[in-house]
């Protein structure tokens, strides 16, 4: 380590006051009051010495920066797409793609939703359809590729609405909301063949595609002898384009891109990026961040790098699973997901057990995690009713190259301790304030007991 960052362990009293002031939403806490921050791995990873050095070479020219051309070459070399449009982060790329392709009444199938992806699809008039295999909704189903598409579901949807009403198939690799589950190369090829026959594009959420490539190398027959870089290229070759948050696999603190093969779609996206992000050669990113992302792309496919990353996640999962704590299996590459329904069986889904558990974890040890359940799922846009997905999870997202094994031990001990005291949590939380979109970020809650949680 060439640099360190100080963190402070707060007292239980401080955490209680802070959580109450934040409306029992850990996302509203000041970072200074968080001891170990597992809220997200997006933009929170530690950059390498070569990334910091690359930032010093950043060309901040408004148009045609040399940093853009290095960035563009890195995306082309490692992901294989010809046309590259930079954006300030992944959801900006999702916005451009949705505005370009989705019209009111369109149907967008995908291997489970992700919050921002579905939000952009719905805001542009699309209707999302979950076509992931049924086992992905079972936290205990221990299958190697729970991110796979159910081809029969996809074919039924095409038959029902018509291929012309499906602007693209939206594929995540890995599937965040299912617990970081990968899609297999064989399944991706089957999806590609079906959509090619029906004239439907396939668009990839590539934020953690390097992790997906690693799991293919480890779990899928015939790929063990191939490099992660080769597997990543093969995955992308089966798709027509991708959105990317460079804040994940590429170790960047900010940045992303939309990349496509169709030159007409690329030109449409460039026109949008000029309106919403910046010129098509910087797209809301500083030249120094374009340089850091380009370097991060090169480092992301290094075998030792991805192996270490996945093994750290597996270490935390192994410790808490050995104590009987219910988690999603198999363990993904970026996070450990606690099964909040099994962890807190006495709290009904309308009292948001996953949200409640994120609060309890912060109160116990100052650890910030993320709710991935009914709060994240939002409301049905037609009925206005809460969606209650089968998976009610708490995500412990591990930033890359940031925390040591000792930090993971602190997290494991807190979770094990909470699990042993779970009977103390008999009631959950209710909304005190609820925004219209992506409510999990800024909602505020109140304990239904009328007293502080674990009070």
For the structure shown, list the relevant keywords.
455 residues; alpha/beta; Aspartate Aminotransferase, domain 1; Aspartate Aminotransferase, domain 2; 2 domains; three-stranded antiparallel sheet; 17 helices; 14 strands; 41% helix; 13% strand; PyrdxlP-dep_Trfase_major; pyridoxal phosphate; Tyrosine phenol-lyase; PyrdxlP-dep_Trfase_small; PyrdxlP-dep_Trfase
Concise structural overview:
By secondary structure, this protein is α/β, with parallel strands linked by helices. The protein is built from 17 helices and 14 strands. The strands form five sheets. The protein has a five-stranded mixed sheet with strand order 2-8-7-6-5, sandwiched between helices. A three-stranded antiparallel sheet has the order 9-12-11.
Q: Indicate the low-confidence ranges by residue numbers.
A: none
Number of helices: 17
Radius of gyration: 21 Å
What coarse outline follows from CA principal-axis ratios?
globular
CATH class of the largest domain: Alpha Beta
Describe what this molecule looks like in 3D.
This protein has 455 residues and is an alpha/beta fold. It folds into 2 domains: 168 residues, Alpha-Beta Complex (Aspartate Aminotransferase, domain 1); 252 residues, Type I PLP-dependent aspartate aminotransferase-like (Major domain) (Aspartate Aminotransferase, domain 2), CATH 3.40.640. The protein is built from 17 helices and 14 strands. The strands form 5 sheets. It has a 5-stranded mixed β-sheet, sandwiched between helices. Strands 9-12-11 form a 3-stranded antiparallel β-sheet. Pfam families: Beta_elim_lyase (PF01212). Its cofactor is pyridoxal 5'-phosphate. It is an enzyme of class 4 (lyase). One of its GO terms (molecular function) is tyrosine phenol-lyase activity.
């Amino acid at each position: 380590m060439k640099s360190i960052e100080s963190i402070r362990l707060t007292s239980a009293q401080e955490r209680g006051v802070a959580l109450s002031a934040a409306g029992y939403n850990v996302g509203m806490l000041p970072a200074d009051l968080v001891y170990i921050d597992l809220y997200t791995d997006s933009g929170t990873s530690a950059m390498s010495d070569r990334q910091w050095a690359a930032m010093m070479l950043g060309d901040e020219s408004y148009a045609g920066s040399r940093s853009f051309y290095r960035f563009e070459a890195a995306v082309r070399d490692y992901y294989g797409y010809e046309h590259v449009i930079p954006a300030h982060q992944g959801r900006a790329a999702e916005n451009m793609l949705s505005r370009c392709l989705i019209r009111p009444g369109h149907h967008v199938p995908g291997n489970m939703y992700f919050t921002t992806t579905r939000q952009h699809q719905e805001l542009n008039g699309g209707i999302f359809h979950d076509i992931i295999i049924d086992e992905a909704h079972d936290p205990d189903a221990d299958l190697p590729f729970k991110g796979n598409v159910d081809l029969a579901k996809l074919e039924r949807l095409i038959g029902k609405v018509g291929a012309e009403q499906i602007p693209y198939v939206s594929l995540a690799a890995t599937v965040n909301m299912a617990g970081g589950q990968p899609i297999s190369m064989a399944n991706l090829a089957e999806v590609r063949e079906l959509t090619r026959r029906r004239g439907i594009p396939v668009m990839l959420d590539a934020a953690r595609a390097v992790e997906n490539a690693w799991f293919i190398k480890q779990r899928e027959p015939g790929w063990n002898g191939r490099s992660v870089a080769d597997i990543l290229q093969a995955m992308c070759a089966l798709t027509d384009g991708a959105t990317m948050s460079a804040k994940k696999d590429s170790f960047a603190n900010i940045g992303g891109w939309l990349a496509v093969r169709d030159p007409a779609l690329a030109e449409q996206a460039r026109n949008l990026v000029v309106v919403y992000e910046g010129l098509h050669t910087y797209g809301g990113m500083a030249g120094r961040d374009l340089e850091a992302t380009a370097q991060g792309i090169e480092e992301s496919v290094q075998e030792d790098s991805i192996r270490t990353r996945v093994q750290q996640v597996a270490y935390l999962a192994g410790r808490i699973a050995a104590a009987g704590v219910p988690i999603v299996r198999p363990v993904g590459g970026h996070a450990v997901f606690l099964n909040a329904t099994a962890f807190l069986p006495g709290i009904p889904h309308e009292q948001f057990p996953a949200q409640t558990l994120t609060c309890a974890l912060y109160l116990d040890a100052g650890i910030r995690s993320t709710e991935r359940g009914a709060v994240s799922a939002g409301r049905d846009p037609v009925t206005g009713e809460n969606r209650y997905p089968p998976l009610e999870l708490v995500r412990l997202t591990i930033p890359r190259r940031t925390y040591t094994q000792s930090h993971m031990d602190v997290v494991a001990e807190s979770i094990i301790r909470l699990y042993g005291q779970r009977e103390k949590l008999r009631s959950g939380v209710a909304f005190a304030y609820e925004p219209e979109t992506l409510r999990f970020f800024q909602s505020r809650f109140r304990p239904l007991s009328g007293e502080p949680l674990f009070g």
